[in-house]
What does this fold into?
Amino acid sequence: MDRLGRFVLTRFLGRGGMGEVWQGHHLVDQTPVAIKLVDGPLAGRRQSISAEIRAISALDHPHIIWIYDQGVVDGRPYFAMELAEGGNLVESPPTDWLSLRDVLVQLLSALSHAHARGVLHRDIKPENVLCGGARPGIKLADFGLGVFFQDDDRAGLGSGGTPAYMAPEQFEQQRASFGPWTDLYALGCMTYALAAGQRPFPERDFAGLRAAHLHRTIPPLRPRFPVPPTLEAWIRRAMMRAIQERFANAAEAAAALPDNSILSASMVSIRDIALTEQATNTDPGRADDQPVSADVPEAVQPLPRPRPLAAPEDWRQPPRTSLRLMGAGLSLFGLRALPLIGREKERDLLWAALRKGLQGDSFPIVFIEGAAGVGKSRLARWLCDTAAELGLSQPIRAEHSRAGAPGDGLPGALCRAIGLSRDTLTVPELQRRLEGLWPPDSPGWRALCALLHRQPDRSSPREQQVLQAQVLRFLSPRTLLWIDDGQWATDSLGFLRRLAEDPTALNGMAVVTLRSETLPEE
It folds into this structure.
């Protein structure tokens, strides 16, 4: 038996995209594990491997595979993970609507958790959804293509994904457009495959799949088992080509998921078709520049437009069980997200302010003041993560520093939220990314571009504040704005003063973290 750190290899399971996968167990308590041993050209690509470890280690959710430890042996990186003994969804697909819905609910919960922490998976497919493990339910795995979509350098990353399930923005390498909706497109495509037994676009080659996902109409759903009549419309909304027409986040998609109360009596089962079967291209002659309408066919029961999700009265949720092994995981120290313990009075006050702001009657502004290291940012981050995971808002964090870094302030935060680089920002790019904000000939575009570039402009501070409020309202109907290190945030605090004068300008709230030792004594 071969030993890797605190683990022993016992059985070869197969090869994955990054190398060998082994079954093993922990030396002390015999807990079974899966060990991914990277080899070949990828063994030298520490950045790709670190991306997977970084993505998974930042997450702690019962339906996301747990990573126990990592290391290097003979120059080959490895990491030990939770063992899922039930195979994947290709090997064990759902056989009825109840089991399919259960899978979707668990996956959407996992994606809500990941997206709230800025992590995209980018490769949702049946092979990457594992069954069983140390915790009940399915597990989302293989975050090797995962990316922190709020990073400033995401434009330099590859598009990733498996062509059969990739979103249009991945085919077109529009990395600035990546967001939760990118994973939800792939989930919609996978849902079609699980329900019908075959993918919506069965083409084999990359060019054919690209043309299909960019231009072809999704074929009618012919499920293998009875499903609710609105499931097809749910799939089609998830797979809309225009990202603004898809579900905005996983919580919204979960709220719109058909329930178990009504099944369509008109649905008939068809013969099972293996998910891995790939039919030939049924329309090889279609040119890439021939768009086809993606409208929902009249026969498909429409899905109501989603309503804003209501914030629960209490933020408290049942505790999640995390996995720990004696002597393992020390190499992950600093990567894991530590849960916030206690501070319940402060969290109750923050949650009450958020609920009040989301009702639209006012725009609360909460100041969290204290010395460095007392946990101000932990409280603000907790509020932002919780609100995002519940689908209540997409928080925006404006950072500040004494010296004034290029990405500081609300302009830098808006650039990150829009997904554009301040170095290459142009009016056409703004118009493309914020399509529908103003008419193309509006003078606001040039003023906004100058503001985000921090270039001199004739706009007054008041006019700039109006621009920023319009962009925030366009990005999300409900704003959760975090002004970090507010003691250096002169411009951002000026923006908040305007909101205090006109609390109806935005729907939501702002939280400001301040270091007390840097504030004037008066």
